[in-house]
Write a structure and sequence with these properties.
alpha/beta, globular
């Protein structure tokens, strides 16, 4: 990746141990699971200077500023996380490296994307968001059936109403609806489906992936970002993957991306040179099988930053612990 505006060989890792945006507890362990699976080591082996900023710590929960929105669980607690993360994301983006936000549930994207969008707005370049997810996450407090705020994150990013006070005094930098791509979607609530259709948001669901292939569809995203001189934020929910590949998530939906499809997505994104920030969300080690999902997520991040198929160890040339 080369861009004179940033230091493309420097990556800033930040853990965001947030779990209350989801119904299933355990995602707060996600950042440390990714570290244990070797995310820093893999990126360093690819030639990046890796700065691990530890896990985000929030101050005391911000006091209520009036009644919270109806049907938004743990609003005041999540509000505190999002405000802290948005400011930190802005500073990390401004520092010149490529921030990777290790979650944590998907509600964290309301802060991470807002912060990096604020930075790129100052640079005069549009930020596009590729939402790799089984779910659209396009509910609002007025449409949600659960009240879980991780299901409202994409809608918040495009300026949908209902969480208008979430950022307090910080600027809310919404992206246009044509700067959001929902990719790998296969579970959408009826109210979400109606809003997404009305807004004209691009969706590549699993039927489209089956019909056209991930290569064709990802290239369409890349071409649109390039045509507008934009940069790309990849928000990667591990439930984008099929549960057979990645069981360590609380919101599994059958029929997701295969191992090779996911790697091809990441390889093409790397080749594009457009990726400037990343979320890795919804990894729940409590539900995983001996770290399997964390290892797959780290391998995919490796592909996103340049790891080639020929670089991967195979049983014929790998050095396993028992042989060392």
């Amino acid at each position: 990746m080369s861009d004179p505006e940033i230091s493309p060989r420097r990556i800033a890792l930040l853990g965001v141990p947030l779990e209350i945006g989801a119904s299933q507890r355990g995602t707060l362990m996600g950042p440390d699971a990714l570290r244990t699976a070797g995310i820093g080591r893999v990126l360093a082996q690819l030639g990046f200077a890796v700065e691990d900023h530890g896990n985000l710590a929030i101050p005391a929960v911000s006091p209520a500023e009036g009644p919270p929105p109806a049907h938004a669980k743990y609003y005041d607690e999540i509000k505190t996380w999002i405000r802290a993360l948005s400011e930190r994301a802005y500073l990390l983006a401004r520092s010149g490296g490529i921030p990777i936000f290790m979650g944590g549930d998907h509600s964290l994207s309301m802060g991470s994307v807002n912060g990096v969008a604020r930075y790129w707005k100052e640079q005069g370049r549009p930020l596009f968001v590729l939402w790799l997810d089984a779910h659209a996450d396009y509910n609002t407090p007025g449409t949600t059936g659960t009240g879980n705020m991780h299901g409202m994150s994409a809608a918040f990013l495009t300026g949908e109403p209902g969480l208008d006070g979430l950022l307090g005094d910080q600027p809310r930098v919404s992206i246009a609806t044509d700067q959001l791509d929902l990719f790998g979607i296969r579970s959408v609530d009826p109210p979400e489906k109606e809003i997404v259709r009305d807004r004209g948001i691009a969706i590549a669901d699993m039927r489209a992936i089956d019909e056209f292939g991930v290569g064709v569809l990802i290239r369409r995203v890349i071409e649109r970002v390039k045509a507008q001189g934009g940069v790309l934020h990849v928000s990667f929910d591990v439930d984008f993957l099929d549960p057979a590949v990645a069981p360590g998530v609380g919101t599994t939906v059958p029929g997701g991306a295969t191992y090779r499809e996911a790697h091809l997505v990441m390889e093409l994104l790397h080749d594009s040179g457009l990726v400037r920030s990343v979320d890795i969300v919804e990894l729940n080690p409590f539900l995983d099988e001996r770290g399997r999902t964390a290892r797959v997520a780290v391998e995919l991040v490796g592909s996103l930053f340049g790891l080639q198929i020929t670089d991967r160890p195979t049983p014929s040339n790998a050095v396993f612990p028992e042989n060392t």
